[in-house]
Amino acid sequence: MNLATVIDPHPEGALALVSRGKRTTYGELRDQVARLRGGLTGLGLEPGDRVGILCANNWYFVVSYLATLGIGCVAVPLNPLSPPRELERELAAVGARVLIAGPAARAAAAGLDRSRLPVLEHVVHGEGHAQPDAISFADLTASSPAPIVEREPDDVAVLIFTSGTAGSPKAAMLSHGNLLANIDQSLAVEPDVDRSAEVVLGLLPMFHIFGLNVVLGMALRSGAAVLLIERFDPSSALEAIAKHGVTTVAGAPTMWSTWATMPGLEPDAFSSVRLATSGAARLGTDVVETMRDRFGIQIVEGYGLTEASPVVTSSVGLEWRAGSIGAPVPGVDVRLVDADGEDALVGDAGELWVHGPNVFQGYWNDAAATAATIDSDGWLRTGDVAVVDDDGYLYLVDRIKDLIIVSGFNVFPAEVEEVILEREGVAACAVVGVPHPHSGEAVKAFVVMRPGFAAEEDDIIEHCAAHLARYKCPAKVNFVDELPVNTSGKVLRRALR
Known about the structure:
Blueprint: E1 15-19, E2 22-25, H1 26-42, E3 50-54, H2 59-70, E4 74-77, H3 84-94, E5 98-101, H4 106-110, E6 122-125, E7 135-136, H5 137-140, E8 156-161, E9 171-175, H6 176-187, E10 199-202, H7 209-222, E11 225-228, H8 234-244, E12 248-251, H9 253-261, E13 275-278, H10 285-295, E14 299-304, E15 311-314, E16 327-328, E17 333-337, E18 350-355, E19 362-363, H11 367-373, E20 380-388, E21 394-399, E22 404-406, E23 409-411, H12 413-421, E24 426-436, E25 440-449, H13 457-465, E26 476-479, H14 493-496
Parallel strand pairs: 1-11, 3-4, 3-5, 5-6, 6-7, 10-11, 10-12, 12-13, 13-14, 25-26
Antiparallel strand pairs: 1-2, 8-9, 9-19, 14-15, 15-16, 17-18, 18-20, 20-21, 22-23, 24-25
Helix pairs in contact: 1-2, 6-7, 9-10
């Protein structure tokens, strides 16, 4: 098998990509990928070698990704906006032999200190040469086609750096079998839908597993077209949705909240959209309701993580329930495990464990972290706390690692955040635990106010006291202009601490 073969069965003339105003059919894409396979093979790459892909969401990324997998190498998608020092750390960590830099990443690639990267042999540039010794992407794609290399299901296809919300980012090893299994598991939630005629919005960054496998992987597997967008501008994205008749939009909460509050939009702004999903972080119920009331579009949520390739649960095809992440997708088993290692009762919180062919192979060169994450029976400990209701709907409570313990009592930050968000004028907030000489830890809140609203520290604390047990209330409130988030929209609590 080889994941890169997902593009092979589709009709020659079917639209595959729209990127930078250019349309690429599946027939053209197969030829382009085959020629880049030949070019990369000519650089001396062998199966198992790592190839860094430093591209925005565009044609360069897709062709590079599929060609890298096709010759049996391991794709390492990287954030093109990362500073050179961070890129150097990541490239060095995985021992990449080749780096492919798209047009938007020329400056970042040129800024690398190659002395820190002794294994890196070649840098390929998408447009022009940023360095004297750089290789032209166009030259590589002019090579003679090379065949696809057969791989085993457990062979690593992608090394993708985790978001690092609970510590330093680690490179998760996702195999051809992991990624393909999760694509098919996710497609199985709508078994009767023919997705081949759909147009998918490719806006979520493809160096993140959500954009890579949920958006790109599922679309290419089903023969759909992907409209690739390199950066989010709410107005131009809406124009693109209308122009190209986008039918599927997967977004992060910040994207949906921006559209929900944009003035002057017509009620039919999303009239072509059949399926709207949100992931990566919790989506506010008010945003869901606003999008439904203003535009007649129902956003559904799911849950996943890099180590699960990533989808674990989905609400697609289910009755919408506020705050629910849905139910496990077909082929994925979950458990909720309490502090004693036993299965939690219905309504009781427990750590979410995941089992299935989508569970990753472990962390690159980090056996200790792998052993701490996957048990001997193959269960993935997610570190997320959830509850399940009588109907099997799951609801996230919080991260175990974010748990705050005040005088021996557990405080889940999300519970406090939900209450703070109910106060008029609060735009966003995040809660963390900080050391306290008497209670061990105390609750500290960081609050962003909406324009035109103001509040005092005591206002927030008193509001919480009216809704929460005293030990759960913030002892300190800081008002900030914005919260630190990673590229997928998750709040970086460690940065707040």
